[in-house]
Amino acid sequence: MRRVVVTGVGVLSSIGNTLTQFEESLRACRPGIGPITQIDTSRLRFHNAAEVAGFEPTGHFTDSQLNWLDRFAQLGIVAARDAIADSTLTWNDELRARTGVITGSCLGGIGTEDAHYFGFYHEKKSRCSPTAVPRIMSNAVASHVAMEQKFTGATFTTSTACSSANHAIGQALWLIRQGTLDCALAGGSEAPISFGHLKAWEAMRVVAPDICRPFSKNRAGIILGEGAAMLVLETLENARARGAKIYAELAGFGMSADAYHLTSPLAEGAARAMNAALEDGHLSPEQINYVNAHGTGTQANDSTETRAIRQVFGSHADRLAVSSTKSMHGHALGAAGALEGVATLLAFRNNFLPPTANFLDRDPACDLDVVPNEARSAEIEAALSNSFAFGGLNAVLAFRRVAE
Amino acid sequence: MSEETVAQRVIRIIATNKKMAPEEVSPATRFEDLKMDSLDALNMIFALEEEFDIDIPNEEAAKMKSVDEAIHGVEELLKAKSSASN
Question: Regarding beta strands A290-292 and A382-389, do their DSSP bridges make them parallel or antiparallel, or are they unpaired?
Fold first, then answer.
């Protein structure tokens, strides 16, 4: 069986627009959460988010390119460029033909969509830009990266709400493993800060008024995040042959549907996805040292996820480190699994456990070692990264340390 | 026809939300007895906001676990609204 490894990573988030900054923030337990700057929030009940800061689109794209790119696509394309550079892969026509781009996004170009609707409904405009449709489409990142890099293998986009990126990365793993692709760019991107969309989150009453405190007793909900992260996946054989640095093996992927409720999570569904990822990666629960939790900071998710982890790991759950990096980079929806995958890969490569920031009082319903408020040194052998979406669609990645 | 009271309007909204007859809902009815899940509750709070043109903050919404508590909560918010506009 072909084994698949991660040899390149790119990330843009509220806690850093480079891999180095992202890691420094995780290690320092420094959240990137603050007042929303992109829109006026005076008519919103919440005012904080985890926005990407200091991203200057004109530093990355020409004006004519930007005409075709919503912010979510800009972030995704730059993350892909950074991941490709980080991989130090040498490209030729043969490899490009067997490389695909598989991206996740929940919302696509919702900022563009919102602005156009405002123009039509409020400003009574009679026409909009002819680039609106390609800016809005959720597969914009996959298409632009393929065009820019001349990658012509299997390329598509998954949209499964908060699990989108993990579904994308998991599909990329399987396509390489089964021989359809030799290499893939996989990840997710999201730019959810538009007034109309934030009003929809307000109505769901799951956004915290101040900050995200996963697993704390008095947690008050999610903080929405922006960002993009992309991984370069290739075969272990190829990575070793070219002497590449290897972050970790992407060993397994598991998914499940709760078939239960649109918004209430089900522990059994999450547990089935974790078990499926372990089985797919030929890992036993006892081999896992770290779980990057879905850990949204809602009352329902964190207690349900704790129960699911206990179902899967039994008494080994007490020896696991489980943290939610959403406490720092926010909940980036369709990019969440990609950002959290990067956090997990950095943990492997540089031997630390990313913490759960903003932790206050323990909740008996979340009785796990959540690595509160301080990163820790540790050598991880294997890890899971969880994503559980509204609609009950669960996607879990399993990573394993592998010698270069 | 006499004008609906606040209590009657709240009961109408809740009954409509749960597709029940208003007579089946009384002030003493608890939402758990109506088998109201989290989405039903969200929809009911939204419908009350629309009906009375009020904003029900999360902490007020969390206190509404029965019809009586919903009526009381709405009355308080209406009072606050009318004193704010005076």
Answer: parallel
Marked catalytic residue, from A106, A162, A183, A366: A162
- pTM for this structure? 0.94
* Cβ separation B57–A45 shorter than 8 A: yes
Q: In terms of DSSP bridges, do strands A248-257 and A4-13 run parallel, antiparallel, or are they unpaired?
A: antiparallel
Q: Tell me the C-alpha to C-alpha distance, in Å, between residue A301 and each of A53, A207, A318, A365.
A: 28, 13, 19, 11
Inter-chain contacts counted by CB atoms under 8 A, chains A and B: 20
- Three-state DSSP class for residue A235: strand
Of all residues in chain B, the one with the smallest CA distance to A43 is B55
Of the candidates A205, A261, A264, the beta carbon closest to that of B58 is on: A205
- List CB contacts (< 8 A) between B37 and chain A: 261, 264
For A134, A174, A234, A243, B69, the CA distances from A240, given in Å and listed in that order, are 39, 20, 10, 5, 66
Shortest distance, CA B64 to any CA of chain A (angstroms)? 14
β-pair partners for A188: A104, A229
- pLDDT tens for residues B3-57? 899 999 999 999 998 899 999 999 999 999 998 888 889 999 999 999 999 999 9
- The answer to whether A103 and A189 have CB atoms below 8 angstroms apart is yes
Instruction: Enumerate the β-bridge partners of residue A396.
Output: A254, A386
What confidence tens digit (pLDDT) does each residue in A63-88 have? 999 999 999 999 999 999 999 999 99
User: What's the pLDDT tens digit per position in A320-342?
Assistant: 999 999 999 999 999 999 999 99
CA distance B36 to chain A (A): 13
Give the whole-angstrom CA distance, residue A389 versus residue A349. 28
- Count, residues in chain B: 86
**Contact criterion met (CB < 8 Å) for B39 and A261:** yes
A60 in catalytic set: no
